[in-house]
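Re: weekly structure request thread

Next one in the queue (303 aa):
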Amino acid sequence: MDDRRESQVDARATQVTQLPYLSVEQVTLRVGRGDSVLLSQLCLTLHPGERCVVVGHSGSGKTLLFRLLNGLLPPSQGRIDWQGKSIAEIPGPELRRQVAWVSRSPRLLGMNTVKDAIAYPLKLQSLSDHEIQQRLDQAFQALTLPLDWLSQSASALSLLEQWWVTLARAWVMQPGLLLLERPEFSNSSEPPVSSGGGDDGAGAAWRDVWGEAALDRAIATFQAQGGSVIVACRHDEPLLCRSAHQTFVLSQGQLHPVTGADPSTAIATLLSKEQPSHAEWDDEDWGDDLDEARPNLQPSDLH
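Done, posted below.
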Protein backbone atom coordinates (compact mmCIF):
# COMPACT_ATOMS: atom_id res chain seq x y z
CA MET A 1 0.00 0.00 0.00
CA ASP A 2 2.80 2.38 0.89
CA ASP A 3 4.56 1.65 -2.39
CA ARG A 4 1.35 2.40 -4.31
CA ARG A 5 0.86 5.71 -2.49
CA GLU A 6 4.47 6.67 -3.10
CA SER A 7 4.04 5.87 -6.78
CA GLN A 8 0.93 8.06 -6.94
CA VAL A 9 2.79 10.94 -5.28
CA ASP A 10 5.68 10.58 -7.74
CA ALA A 11 3.23 10.58 -10.65
CA ARG A 12 1.58 13.77 -9.41
CA ALA A 13 4.99 15.41 -8.90
CA THR A 14 5.99 14.51 -12.45
CA GLN A 15 2.73 15.93 -13.78
CA VAL A 16 3.34 19.23 -11.93
CA THR A 17 6.88 19.59 -13.28
CA GLN A 18 5.60 18.99 -16.82
CA LEU A 19 2.92 21.69 -16.62
CA PRO A 20 3.72 24.50 -19.06
CA TYR A 21 4.68 27.91 -17.75
CA LEU A 22 2.70 29.57 -20.50
CA SER A 23 -0.22 28.32 -22.57
CA VAL A 24 -1.80 30.40 -25.34
CA GLU A 25 -4.89 28.79 -26.84
CA GLN A 26 -6.62 30.16 -29.94
CA VAL A 27 -6.09 33.79 -28.95
CA THR A 28 -7.52 36.48 -31.21
CA LEU A 29 -7.29 40.26 -30.79
CA ARG A 30 -9.82 42.57 -32.43
CA VAL A 31 -10.36 46.33 -32.26
CA GLY A 32 -13.23 48.65 -32.97
CA ARG A 33 -16.51 46.79 -33.31
CA GLY A 34 -14.68 43.52 -33.83
CA ASP A 35 -14.36 43.74 -37.60
CA SER A 36 -10.63 44.57 -37.48
CA VAL A 37 -8.57 41.50 -36.52
CA LEU A 38 -4.96 42.25 -35.58
CA LEU A 39 -3.92 38.84 -34.23
CA SER A 40 -5.73 35.62 -35.05
CA GLN A 41 -5.91 32.19 -33.42
CA LEU A 42 -2.49 32.32 -31.77
CA CYS A 43 -1.31 29.10 -30.12
CA LEU A 44 1.85 28.73 -28.06
CA THR A 45 3.07 26.51 -25.22
CA LEU A 46 6.24 27.20 -23.25
CA HIS A 47 7.76 25.06 -20.48
CA PRO A 48 10.28 26.07 -17.78
CA GLY A 49 13.76 26.65 -19.18
CA GLU A 50 12.62 26.94 -22.80
CA ARG A 51 13.43 29.63 -25.34
CA CYS A 52 11.05 30.80 -28.06
CA VAL A 53 11.92 33.24 -30.85
CA VAL A 54 9.26 35.24 -32.70
CA VAL A 55 10.42 36.93 -35.90
CA GLY A 56 8.30 39.54 -37.63
CA HIS A 57 8.49 42.75 -39.62
CA SER A 58 7.89 46.06 -37.88
CA GLY A 59 4.15 46.38 -37.48
CA SER A 60 3.49 42.63 -37.56
CA GLY A 61 2.12 42.61 -34.00
CA LYS A 62 5.03 41.52 -31.81
CA THR A 63 4.39 44.30 -29.29
CA LEU A 64 0.69 43.48 -29.23
CA LEU A 65 1.54 39.84 -28.55
CA PHE A 66 3.67 40.82 -25.58
CA ARG A 67 0.96 43.12 -24.24
CA LEU A 68 -1.43 40.19 -24.32
CA LEU A 69 1.02 37.89 -22.54
CA ASN A 70 1.83 40.60 -19.98
CA GLY A 71 -1.84 41.18 -19.19
CA LEU A 72 -1.89 44.76 -20.50
CA LEU A 73 -4.48 43.84 -23.14
CA PRO A 74 -7.24 41.25 -22.79
CA PRO A 75 -7.73 38.87 -25.73
CA SER A 76 -10.96 39.23 -27.69
CA GLN A 77 -11.14 35.47 -27.91
CA GLY A 78 -9.20 32.50 -26.56
CA ARG A 79 -7.33 31.88 -23.32
CA ILE A 80 -3.89 32.65 -21.90
CA ASP A 81 -2.75 30.64 -18.87
CA TRP A 82 0.26 31.24 -16.65
CA GLN A 83 1.30 28.21 -14.61
CA GLY A 84 -2.09 26.60 -15.16
CA LYS A 85 -4.17 29.65 -14.23
CA SER A 86 -5.88 32.13 -16.53
CA ILE A 87 -4.01 35.45 -16.48
CA ALA A 88 -7.41 37.15 -16.27
CA GLU A 89 -7.61 35.78 -12.72
CA ILE A 90 -4.13 36.99 -11.69
CA PRO A 91 -3.79 40.57 -10.33
CA GLY A 92 -1.83 42.73 -12.76
CA PRO A 93 1.13 43.60 -10.48
CA GLU A 94 1.52 39.94 -9.48
CA LEU A 95 1.44 38.75 -13.10
CA ARG A 96 3.98 41.34 -14.23
CA ARG A 97 6.37 40.29 -11.48
CA GLN A 98 6.28 36.79 -12.93
CA VAL A 99 6.04 37.70 -16.62
CA ALA A 100 8.44 40.60 -17.20
CA TRP A 101 8.41 42.54 -20.47
CA VAL A 102 11.50 44.36 -21.70
CA SER A 103 10.29 46.74 -24.41
CA ARG A 104 12.44 47.66 -27.40
CA SER A 105 12.28 51.26 -26.15
CA PRO A 106 13.99 51.72 -22.76
CA ARG A 107 11.83 53.29 -20.05
CA LEU A 108 13.80 54.10 -16.92
CA LEU A 109 11.20 56.27 -15.18
CA GLY A 110 13.42 59.37 -14.97
CA MET A 111 15.29 58.19 -11.88
CA ASN A 112 18.46 59.96 -10.73
CA THR A 113 20.76 56.99 -11.22
CA VAL A 114 20.76 53.61 -12.90
CA LYS A 115 20.71 51.99 -9.45
CA ASP A 116 17.56 53.92 -8.52
CA ALA A 117 15.86 52.88 -11.76
CA ILE A 118 16.62 49.19 -11.24
CA ALA A 119 15.81 49.20 -7.52
CA TYR A 120 12.46 51.01 -7.90
CA PRO A 121 10.22 47.94 -8.44
CA LEU A 122 11.99 46.14 -5.58
CA LYS A 123 11.31 49.03 -3.22
CA LEU A 124 7.64 48.79 -4.15
CA GLN A 125 7.81 45.25 -2.75
CA SER A 126 9.30 46.63 0.50
CA LEU A 127 12.45 44.54 0.18
CA SER A 128 15.34 45.37 2.48
CA ASP A 129 18.30 47.37 1.23
CA HIS A 130 20.48 44.28 1.68
CA GLU A 131 18.18 42.13 -0.48
CA ILE A 132 17.97 44.85 -3.14
CA GLN A 133 21.76 45.20 -3.29
CA GLN A 134 22.15 41.43 -3.48
CA ARG A 135 19.79 41.20 -6.43
CA LEU A 136 21.52 44.12 -8.16
CA ASP A 137 24.90 42.43 -7.79
CA GLN A 138 23.55 39.11 -9.07
CA ALA A 139 21.93 40.72 -12.11
CA PHE A 140 24.99 42.75 -13.09
CA GLN A 141 27.18 39.68 -12.70
CA ALA A 142 24.85 37.49 -14.76
CA LEU A 143 24.55 40.11 -17.51
CA THR A 144 28.25 41.14 -17.24
CA LEU A 145 27.33 44.82 -16.99
CA PRO A 146 29.86 47.43 -15.77
CA LEU A 147 29.34 48.14 -12.07
CA ASP A 148 30.13 51.83 -12.54
CA TRP A 149 26.83 52.18 -14.41
CA LEU A 150 24.99 51.97 -11.09
CA SER A 151 26.12 55.44 -10.05
CA GLN A 152 25.59 57.03 -13.47
CA SER A 153 22.57 58.86 -14.78
CA ALA A 154 20.60 56.80 -17.28
CA SER A 155 20.79 59.74 -19.70
CA ALA A 156 24.59 59.32 -19.77
CA LEU A 157 24.19 55.89 -21.35
CA SER A 158 23.44 55.13 -24.97
CA LEU A 159 19.98 53.86 -25.90
CA LEU A 160 21.29 50.32 -26.28
CA GLU A 161 23.00 50.48 -22.90
CA GLN A 162 19.74 51.75 -21.40
CA TRP A 163 17.99 48.72 -22.90
CA TRP A 164 20.40 46.45 -21.03
CA VAL A 165 19.65 48.37 -17.84
CA THR A 166 15.95 47.76 -18.47
CA LEU A 167 16.76 44.06 -18.83
CA ALA A 168 18.61 44.19 -15.50
CA ARG A 169 15.55 45.78 -13.89
CA ALA A 170 13.40 42.90 -15.14
CA TRP A 171 16.06 40.38 -14.06
CA VAL A 172 16.09 41.53 -10.42
CA MET A 173 12.36 40.86 -10.22
CA GLN A 174 13.24 37.14 -10.59
CA PRO A 175 10.42 36.42 -13.05
CA GLY A 176 9.61 33.02 -14.50
CA LEU A 177 9.26 34.40 -18.02
CA LEU A 178 11.10 37.19 -19.81
CA LEU A 179 9.52 38.84 -22.85
CA LEU A 180 12.36 40.51 -24.75
CA GLU A 181 11.94 42.87 -27.68
CA ARG A 182 15.22 43.19 -29.54
CA PRO A 183 16.28 46.86 -29.71
CA GLU A 184 17.24 48.28 -33.06
CA PHE A 185 18.15 51.95 -32.77
CA SER A 186 18.68 53.35 -36.23
CA ASN A 187 19.88 56.68 -34.82
CA SER A 188 22.18 55.33 -32.12
CA SER A 189 25.91 55.89 -32.22
CA GLU A 190 26.77 52.19 -31.87
CA PRO A 191 28.06 50.32 -34.95
CA PRO A 192 25.28 48.32 -36.62
CA VAL A 193 25.18 44.58 -36.04
CA SER A 194 26.08 43.94 -39.66
CA SER A 195 28.68 46.65 -40.04
CA GLY A 196 29.99 47.04 -43.55
CA GLY A 197 31.15 44.16 -45.70
CA GLY A 198 34.12 43.34 -43.52
CA ASP A 199 34.35 42.37 -39.88
CA ASP A 200 36.29 45.31 -38.49
CA GLY A 201 37.45 45.31 -34.89
CA ALA A 202 34.95 47.90 -33.65
CA GLY A 203 31.96 46.14 -35.17
CA ALA A 204 33.06 42.71 -33.92
CA ALA A 205 33.71 44.03 -30.42
CA TRP A 206 30.32 45.77 -30.33
CA ARG A 207 28.53 42.61 -31.43
CA ASP A 208 30.25 40.58 -28.73
CA VAL A 209 29.57 43.06 -25.89
CA TRP A 210 26.04 44.26 -26.74
CA GLY A 211 24.87 42.33 -29.77
CA GLU A 212 23.34 38.96 -30.52
CA ALA A 213 26.13 36.94 -28.87
CA ALA A 214 25.79 38.84 -25.59
CA LEU A 215 22.02 38.44 -25.56
CA ASP A 216 22.35 34.74 -26.34
CA ARG A 217 24.65 34.30 -23.32
CA ALA A 218 22.28 36.24 -21.05
CA ILE A 219 19.29 34.18 -22.18
CA ALA A 220 21.20 30.94 -21.67
CA THR A 221 22.04 32.02 -18.11
CA PHE A 222 18.40 32.78 -17.40
CA GLN A 223 17.35 29.42 -18.85
CA ALA A 224 19.91 27.62 -16.70
CA GLN A 225 18.16 29.13 -13.68
CA GLY A 226 14.88 27.59 -14.82
CA GLY A 227 13.44 30.68 -16.48
CA SER A 228 11.77 30.81 -19.89
CA VAL A 229 12.27 33.47 -22.56
CA ILE A 230 10.39 34.72 -25.61
CA VAL A 231 12.50 36.92 -27.87
CA ALA A 232 10.89 39.11 -30.53
CA CYS A 233 13.10 40.36 -33.37
CA ARG A 234 12.58 41.86 -36.80
CA HIS A 235 14.80 39.55 -38.80
CA ASP A 236 16.46 36.17 -38.63
CA GLU A 237 19.12 36.02 -35.92
CA PRO A 238 20.75 32.60 -36.35
CA LEU A 239 22.49 32.52 -32.97
CA LEU A 240 19.27 33.18 -31.05
CA CYS A 241 17.19 30.84 -33.23
CA ARG A 242 19.74 28.02 -33.16
CA SER A 243 19.28 27.54 -29.42
CA ALA A 244 15.50 28.06 -29.47
CA HIS A 245 13.11 25.28 -28.60
CA GLN A 246 10.55 26.95 -30.87
CA THR A 247 10.77 29.58 -33.59
CA PHE A 248 7.79 31.35 -35.16
CA VAL A 249 7.28 33.98 -37.83
CA LEU A 250 4.50 36.43 -36.99
CA SER A 251 2.95 37.30 -40.31
CA GLN A 252 -0.53 38.46 -41.31
CA GLY A 253 -1.61 38.29 -37.68
CA GLN A 254 -0.73 34.63 -37.20
CA LEU A 255 2.13 32.63 -35.69
CA HIS A 256 3.72 30.35 -38.28
CA PRO A 257 6.05 27.66 -36.86
CA VAL A 258 9.48 27.42 -38.45
CA THR A 259 10.44 23.84 -39.24
CA GLY A 260 12.97 22.01 -41.35
CA ALA A 261 16.73 21.69 -41.54
CA ASP A 262 17.24 25.24 -42.84
CA PRO A 263 15.35 27.66 -40.53
CA SER A 264 16.93 30.75 -42.10
CA THR A 265 15.43 29.93 -45.49
CA ALA A 266 12.07 29.12 -43.92
CA ILE A 267 12.06 32.42 -42.01
CA ALA A 268 12.97 34.39 -45.15
CA THR A 269 10.20 32.68 -47.10
CA LEU A 270 7.56 33.43 -44.48
CA LEU A 271 8.72 37.04 -44.05
CA SER A 272 8.56 37.60 -47.80
CA LYS A 273 4.80 37.06 -47.70
CA GLU A 274 4.26 40.27 -45.73
CA GLN A 275 5.62 43.74 -46.40
CA PRO A 276 7.06 45.59 -43.39
CA SER A 277 5.02 48.43 -41.91
CA HIS A 278 6.52 51.82 -41.14
CA ALA A 279 5.99 51.44 -37.39
CA GLU A 280 4.94 48.91 -34.81
CA TRP A 281 1.44 49.35 -33.36
CA ASP A 282 1.63 51.51 -30.28
CA ASP A 283 -0.77 53.18 -27.86
CA GLU A 284 -1.43 56.15 -30.09
CA ASP A 285 -2.46 53.85 -32.94
CA TRP A 286 -5.36 52.53 -30.87
CA GLY A 287 -6.93 55.71 -29.55
CA ASP A 288 -10.13 55.12 -27.58
CA ASP A 289 -10.17 51.41 -28.47
CA LEU A 290 -7.02 50.78 -26.42
CA ASP A 291 -8.23 52.89 -23.51
CA GLU A 292 -11.33 50.75 -23.29
CA ALA A 293 -9.46 47.47 -23.71
CA ARG A 294 -6.62 47.79 -21.25
CA PRO A 295 -6.91 47.72 -17.45
CA ASN A 296 -6.06 50.68 -15.26
CA LEU A 297 -2.31 50.65 -14.65
CA GLN A 298 -0.62 51.20 -11.31
CA PRO A 299 2.97 52.42 -10.71
CA SER A 300 3.99 48.82 -9.95
CA ASP A 301 2.77 47.77 -13.40
CA LEU A 302 5.51 49.71 -15.17
CA HIS A 303 8.18 47.66 -16.85
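The first strand starts at residue 22 and ends at 31. The chain has one domain: 21-107+158-164+175-301.
Next request, please.
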